[in-house]
Specification:
The complex is a heterodimer of chains A (121) and B (595). Helices cover 39% and strands 16% of the residues of chain A. Chain A is an alpha+beta fold and 121 residues long. Chain A has a four-stranded mixed beta sheet. Chain A is elongated and about 55 Å long. The termini of chain A are far apart. Chain B has five domains: 104 residues, 3-Layer(aba) Sandwich (Glutaredoxin), CATH 3.40.30; 212 residues, Rossmann fold (3-Layer(aba) Sandwich); 84 residues, Roll (Ubiquitin-like (UB roll)); 90 residues, de novo design (two linked rop proteins) (Up-down Bundle), CATH 1.20.1440; 55 residues, Alpha-Beta Plaits (2-Layer Sandwich), CATH 3.30.70.20. In chain B, helix 6 runs parallel beside helix 10. Chain B starts with a strand and ends with a strand. The chains are: A alpha+beta (121), B alpha/beta (595). At the A-B interface, helix 1, helix 2, helix 3 and strand 2 of A face strand 1, helix 5 and helix 6 of B. Bound molecules: flavin mononucleotide (FMN) and iron/sulfur cluster. Flavin mononucleotide (FMN) binds next to strand 8 and helix 20 of chain B.
Chain lengths: 121, 595
Amino acid sequence: MKTIADIMAIRDKMQSQIIVRDNSDGEIRVVVGMATCGISAGARPVFNALVDEVSTRQLKNVKITRAGCLGMCKLEPIVEVFIPGQEKVTYVHVDAEKAKQIVANHIVNGNVVTEYLITNV
Amino acid sequence: MYRSHILVCGGTGCQSNKSQTIFSEFKKQIEEKGLDKDIQVVMTGCFGLCSVGPVVIVYPEGAFYSGLTPEDVTEIVEEHLIKGRLVTHLLYKDHATTQAVKALSDTNFYKKQTRVALRNCGVINPENIDEYIAYDGYQALIKCLSGDLSPQDVVDALKKSGLRGRGGGGFPTGMKWQFTKDAVGDIKYVCVNADEGDPGAFMDRSVLEGDPHAVLEAMAIAGYAIGSNKGYIYVRAEYPIAVERCKIAIKQAKEYGLLGQNILGTDFCFDIEIRLGAGAFVCGEETALMTSIEGNRGEPRPRPPFPAIKGLFGKPTLLNNVETYANVAQIILKGADWFASMGTAKSKGTKVFALGGKITNTGLVEIPMGTTLRQVIDDIGGGIPNGKKFKAAQTGGPSGGCIPAEHFDIAIDYDNLISIGSMMGSGGMIVMDEDNCMVDIAKFFLTFTVDESCGKCTPCRIGNRRLLEYLEKITSGNATMQDLDDMEKLCYYIKENSLCGLGQTAPNPVLSTLRYFRDEYIAHIVDKKCPAGVCKSLLQFTITDACKGCSACSRKCPVGAISGEIKSKFTIDQSKCIKCGACIETCKFNAIVKK
Ligand SMILES: Cc1cc2nc3c(=O)[nH]c(=O)nc-3n(C[C@H](O)[C@H](O)[C@H](O)COP(=O)(O)O)c2cc1C
Ligand code: SF4
């Protein structure tokens, strides 16, 4: 037997898990290069870290997707952030730790994490 | 946390095309690859695009794969899930552009729909109450029970929303709830009509299969509003998946204390039981349905008294259709004004239709009231296949009528459809093209109602059988114009004198085809011809001068009716021909015509 508070807790917990299925527009997109090159360079833990971070912070308008090879295999894992109305930002040599910083600094606080940018390589 | 979700359609259409095997195959391969911590496989309710089933959506990309076989699973796992490349050749192709479309939400089929009753179908796992809760499930019930809304507030909200019964009649739902609330009785019941017997309709089935909790929640809200502690789901045994998911849903809701004693710690108690129907069409009629729940033979009884006053076990009873209930929680949560902002002056909200017949995208669609037939058939349904011309659409099944091409731009709502001699019905929409004979269609529906008549009253039991005999006389070329007149009179007689809705509406398909296609009836009677080439007794198979004398047809004819000399024209002996059409299929030169 659950109370109203229990049901609310279930809702909040489940909502963070199903945002993966939301396909609505006007959202921030984070794209991870996940071709063979990206995966062998460690894109999968990056992807999982992004998903985790976005869900713990309950960022409902952020969608994380995969892309194929971006053509710069030696810079993988690559993460691109698309915020509506802003220019695309490309991060390179990302790992799980950096991925979390990108979510916190760039997506939440709006500060691009300049040290991981492609322009630095 | 899963990085990817695979949604496999578990609606009846897809299950009959092995979606269960596809589901297990995904599970197996994902486990073998050690990805089961990252990727979740979920079985959902109907997505709507049944014609291209089995369908699967892979999130976060939203990639929409259609027409899959179990053998395709390996490729999707290897390419998409492991390497992150969409398997383009398995993606759904839009009929208009024949281009592969990535996401379901990008298809023409989806873009023009508005999903209220079907909002969770194909989105959640219907066997997991937590997923329903995630999409604001049971929030409307909480809103009621936490004291925000009094029972009268709930009824008022429904009245204000303009919701009308989706079971066919279109009776204002708020008024029905008010009558039942005001009725005096120590016990009251809440029932849902999930009998859905009209040929070609599968809306209610899909709601129960895809989102059973939405119906449970609405029933509990109804119980709160009218003062009832007991609900019944009347569903036909022919819908095993719907029955199973309802059972699971009730069990889960009870475990969470969302059904049963003292719901969510309040004083409100409400329990739901399932009653299986044996699949008689007449048991969808409200009084027959309740008689059947009581354990008796499902026969209608005269009204009044209406169920709101004297229903199940002689007590005040609220009976609504599945789709009607599926709208309720949304109205409570989003407000009556939101609901009333969709639709036309007297028909608010949306309506689900099961598209069938001669249409590219057979399946399930939900449109705002007031959408035109043209939009439904051309834009959403993808038009008529094989370049054929639209002739008519039958709505309301065996109780309804046809909408001919001249009304192609009619805005679909309750009143407009009635004004042109059809009706909304429960939502079956069968599309017909130039190859359909309208007399034959009328005969098809009448054969159904004659079969399904319960036999309690004479006008329906005997009248409809006589009516069917007239139609058989016409399609076999033996009728006179006098028969046509007599038949029309009989239609009105049956309508006026039958006891229940089944008999009262049975002649509708005949009357509406007579109204719009009288010339076809006359062609059968006077010219002894079936213009569409359907009624066999009126057809003649003949061989034209295009015949090369190859003898292929004469070898194929099962009764040896074709003879001739090689390299000269063959002939068909009409006295032997049984009009099976085998010769037409065999002829390489299109030299055989049926007229
Ligand atoms: C022969 C016959 C069959 C019917 N079948 C159904 C049915 O399958 N499902 C349904 O909801 N209503 C059916 N109805 C309508 C019901 O009698 C009733 O009006 C309806 O369930 C009320 O719910 P609503 O107000 O939500 O539409 C049928 C009526 C007749 C006369
Ligand atoms: S109208 Fe037909 S189905 Fe209805 S009670 Fe009479 S015989 Fe039975």
